[in-house]
Design brief:
About 20% of the residues lie in helices and about 30% in strands. With about 300 residues, the protein is of the alpha+beta class.
């Protein structure tokens, strides 16, 4: 586990931001070009205070173009509120702009879909309109040891459980399916699991791009609800260097309302993962009660 990159020396400099005080800690990318309000080691619940995103202009332009090309339901808007600073060890100060995040299909720009898988689909543009139909699919992929191609794992309307992707990924790695594949994965040593993760591009080696997604699945004997597969998904809205920004919500977050037969919620949040702490490492360390001691994280892309 690498130390989390947290920088507090960024400050607001916008002329019209006299009443905007940056009083909270920022988590900043290694290259200094992205920053979010730090959530610490907790999942924000019932609060909309962890939605602040700051991007350098070139990162904003690239991320917004990628989301538009993916027909994403999420739009980024650059404001004129800016902050300046530089991570420790860097020579150049970066100027970042505060970014507004808007939602096209939820009836209000301040609400995302509540269910994490639907929220991810919305970011990716895989499924627009909230309620998945028979043709809706997002896809997980990772390196294939057989031919170095990408193995596509179909994720249809059962993506909430993650069972298809979890079984198929374990099958590729262990050569076994269902219960035997689960046992085989759990029985690997920590070193063997790390080697497999690196080889197949999963877990801490999963590096999603803007317009893609990432999901984590329950596995292992310690912690977690072993009677069924637990899963969590996140859409990726920006990336710079080895770091990426996730947009997340979850089904049990308070304050949900119904829009077009689908649950929406204004208490979504953004996080930063990547070179200092991966999506996988965070959930493995802090949410073992949900995902067990040997969870599996997979990168998702639009088919």
């Amino acid at each position: 586990m690498h130390p989390v990159a947290v920088v507090q020396r960024y400050k607001t400099v916008a002329a019209n931001a006299a009443n905007y005080n940056l009083t909270y800690t920022l988590r900043v990318s290694n290259d200094g070009k992205m920053a979010v309000r730090d959530t610490g080691n907790s999942t924000p619940s019932g609060t909309d205070q962890y939605q602040d995103l700051y991007l350098a202009t070139e990162v904003f332009n690239a991320s917004q173009a990628t989301l538009q090309n993916a027909n994403s339901g999420v739009t980024l808007v650059q404001t004129n509120v800016t902050i300046k600073g530089k991570p420790k060890g860097k020579f150049f100060q970066q100027k970042l702009y505060k970014i507004d995040i808007q939602f096209s299909d939820t009836g209000s720009n301040d609400k995302s879909y509540t269910n994490c898988n639907t929220n991810m689909w919305h970011v990716m543009g895989t499924q627009r309109g909230g309620v998945p139909d028979a043709t809706a699919a997002s896809h997980g992929y990772f390196k294939s040891s057989v031919n170095q191609s990408r193995l596509v794992v179909s994720q249809g309307t059962d993506a909430g459980s993650g069972s298809n992707a979890l079984v198929e990924v374990r099958k590729e790695i262990t050569g076994l399916t269902k219960k035997k594949g689960r046992d085989a994965w759990d029985n690997l040593t920590a070193s063997e699991r790390d080697k497999a993760a690196k080889k197949y591009g999963i877990n801490q080696y999963a590096k999603p791009k803007a317009g893609e997604g990432i999901g984590i699945y329950q596995a292992g004997e310690q912690g977690g609800n072993t009677s069924k597969v637990m899963a969590h998904f996140a859409g990726v809205i920006a990336r710079s260097g080895g770091d990426y920004i996730t947009l997340e919500n979850f089904a049990l977050n308070p304050g949900a309302t119904i829009y077009n037969k689908t649950s929406v919620n204004k208490n979504w949040y953004v996080r930063m993962f990547g070179s200092n702490q991966s999506f996988y490492e965070y959930h493995e360390q802090h949410e073992q009660q949900d995902y067990g001691d040997n969870p599996m994280a997979v990168r998702f892309r639009k088919a």
